[in-house]
Amino acid sequence: MSVKGDLSSSEKQLFNVISTGNVQEASRLLGCKDVRVNCLDEYGMTPLMHAAYKGKTDMCKLLLQHGADVNCNEHEHGYTALMFAGLSGKTEITWLMLDAGAETDVVNSVGRTAAQMAAFVGQHDCVTVINNYFSRARLDYYTKPQGLEKEPKLPPKLAGPLHKIIMGTNLNPVKMVMLVEENPLLLEAEALDKCRRVMELICEKCIKQQEMNEVLAMKMHYISCVLGKCASFLKDRDDKLDGLTKSLLKGRDSDGFPVYQEKFIRECIRKFPYCDVTLLQQLVRSIAPVEIGNDPTALSVLTQAITGQVGFIDAEFCTSCGEKGAQKRCSACKMVVYCDKACQKLHWFTHKKVCKKLQEQREKQEAEAAKLRMQQSNEEDKEANEAADATQKLKLETNSNGNSAAETAKPVSSEDADN
């Protein structure tokens, strides 16, 4: 590692090139023998830290390919490349750092981790990426026979599809069922049972390891519950997972609230096998007093606990699968949003029962809002008129008083003086 600020001319040039994002020039410089990819500037920042903070994705890839140390923390305040990635708000760069082996529990000089730094500046998507990261290598461990085992706990062909589910940040069970349906390798009860058992093992390991990871343990348990439910449906029914999806989406007639989905998520949390875990107790305290159908829902509480996202504020989520950023609204009621036509079609069987009612509610709310705006406008006009009248009256009084004073102070004429 270089001494802070002890840079060659080529290294100084590399730092300047990173700012411009010129990958070709950076690649040429990195081919020079006198350029050390882990050199430090006067603040202890490496080229990788600079590239991460400036949001230069291609530059980060290039530096990592040339051996950049992702866990260097020689920065004067103990920041790492992962912390700078979180501060930049670039989720892709955050993924790159994690895939390169970035440690998530390192703290800086003020005692904050990369996730906490990202949360501090409002980069919640990066917080979600960090909190939900689980390396493929940790899963691949279960694809190899251990000890006296003749076959692995997880067939290697299932590792990829299962890892995709683990890395997901959308905890809506409908979305998870969709991910299962996407891969034919998972559409077998036996395969799902094997995946479920591996999730339970990872959950147990997260609890019993020296530094307990309650969040990851809860997520693995929740995934195991969803996979177990999918397996039971495949064993008992011939309609694949369509029946499960409809059950999760079916809303009650009064307002369309998905009662079965709420009960299922609550049951998943209740079945968490480690009762003394603090996270479980927090979840129970948040959910138990809430009557089904009211806010917060079990899904929103669980999502906040696992991903670090604060509820569903300032974002639109698909009514069917819960995916963030949904923009298509029901053309009739305009009260529910979807990712696309597929999700809208999937949800229509239950939404059609309340669509007209929601439309009437929206129209009533809009009419009341318009009436309120009109009242406010009239009140504002009245106040403005009253203020104008008062101003005009004040001017008249001022002018009247001014004229009286002028008459009182009128100069005495010589005739008056003689008299």
From TrEMBL:
Domain of life, per lineage: Eukaryota
Compartment(s) where it occurs, according to its Swiss-Prot or TrEMBL record: Cell projection, Cilium
Signal peptide: none
Stretches forming ANK repeats: 43-75, 77-109
Subcellular location, principal: other
Keyword terms: ANK repeat, Cell projection, Cilium, Metal-binding, Repeat, Zinc, Zinc-finger
Keyword Iron: no
UniProt-listed Pfam families: Ank_2, zf-MYND
Biased composition range(s): Polar residues: 397-406
GO terms under cellular component: cilium
Annotated region (Disordered), positions in chain: 366-419
Matching InterPro entries: Ankyrin-MYND_dom_contain_2 (IPR052452), Ankyrin_rpt (IPR002110), Ankyrin_rpt-contain_sf (IPR036770), Znf_MYND (IPR002893)
Domain annotation MYND-type: ranges: 318-355
Cross-referenced SUPFAM superfamilies: Ankyrin repeat, HIT/MYND zinc finger-like
Sample GO molecular function, one term: zinc ion binding
Name of the protein in question: MYND-type domain-containing protein
Source organism (scientific name): Takifugu bimaculatus
